[in-house]
Write a structure and sequence with these properties.
Layout (H helix, E strand, L loop, with lengths): L5 E4 L17 H14 L3 E4 L1 E2 L5 E2 L2 H14 L4 E4 L9 H4 L9 E5 L3 E2 L4 E2 L3 H14 L2 E6 L3 H11 L8 E6 L9 H10 L5 E6 L4 H11 L2 E4 L6 E3 L2 E2 L2 H14 L7 H8 L5
Parallel strand pairs: 1-2, 1-12, 2-5, 5-6, 6-9, 9-10, 10-11, 11-12
Antiparallel strand pairs: 3-4, 7-8, 13-14
Helix pairs in contact: 1-2, 1-8
The structure holds zinc ion.
Length: 272
């Protein structure tokens, strides 16, 4: 089986230090966690920016600062910045991270009802983000909360905006979206264009079972405090502990963990 790419979603938009003191918020904290999870086995880090008050923001300079500092200390690590929409839904707001010219960025290809409010990704916006990523040589990680988002990605590829291998992230077990179970994973896999690569992210208490399904099915894994604050019931996690657990599970079933260079080969990244 091919090597396992581990992505760590360090911060997200919502988690606070009150919920878990290990959530990295300031740029230097995010950089330190990125380097620590890389040492623990992650080959990709997925990053959101926070402002001085710790609130999610779409600030080009903060994205650039985090990106530059990580690349200065670990040039080989794959850094994926978020175009997520919790701090504003406009194209100008959503594209802020792309000005740092990251190697990868997230791209959600459809809309979802979050527990509070709508995560709106109308097709016009998705097309503009995909176009900008293509122009800047940024590889999208296609975020999939529901099966319709795979269909939208196939349409983007038909339009010439995405290149194979497409890389999907199945977000599973988020409230109001697809559940984290084998039936849904199987159906998602049946929809993928040939040669696609995929990872799965289990939300909250779904993180471990989703990791197990993905490792067994030949996919890759995303963990991290963005998706889940706990190691187990009542025990708060750190990003490093969440990555270390994936490495342990993979070791038990003989699935080797990919280095960033090996992850680049799997995902068709040219490197930078
Ligand atoms: Zn994110």
């Amino acid at each position: 089986m091919k090597k396992l790419i581990i992505c760590c979603a360090l911060t997200g938009s919502l988690p606070t230090k009150e919920q878990n003191p290990a959530v990295p918020v300031a740029p230097d904290e995010i950089v330190a966690d990125a380097l620590a999870v890389y040492k623990a086995g992650a080959s990709i880090v997925h990053i959101h920016a926070r402002d001085k008050e710790g609130k999610n923001c779409h600030d080009r300079e903060i994205f650039r600062e985090i990106y530059t500092k990580i690349k200065a200390q670990a040039p080989e690590l794959i850094v994926q910045l978020s175009t997520g929409g919790r701090a504003g839904q406009s194209f100008e707001s959503r594209n802020a991270c792309l000005y740092a010219n990251p190697e990868m960025a997230s791209l959600c290809t459809g809309s979802t009802n979050f527990p509070v409010g709508i995560y709106a990704n109308e097709m016009d916006l998705v097309v503009k983000l995909a176009q900008m990523m293509k122009e800047r040589g940024v590889k999208p990680e296609i975020e999939v909360f529901d099966t319709n988002m795979v269909g939208a990605a196939i349409e983007l590829e038909r339009m010439g905006l995405l290149e194979r291998p497409l890389y999907f992230d199945f977000v599973m077990g988020s409230k109001n979206a697809q559940p984290a179970d084998l039936k849904h994973l199987g159906y998602l896999l049946s929809m993928l264009p040939p040669g696609s690569e995929w990872c799965a992210s289990g939300i909250a208490a779904n993180q471990v079972n989703t990791t197990l399904m993905a490792i067994a099915a030949g996919g890759h894994v995303r963990v991290g405090l963005e998706d889940n604050l706990y190691l187990r019931r009542g025990v708060k996690a750190t990003n490093v502990e969440l990555v270390e657990r994936v490495v342990r599970i993979a070791g038990e079933v003989g699935r080797e963990v990919a280095t960033p260079a090996e992850a680049r080969a799997i995902l068709g990244l040219s490197g930078q």
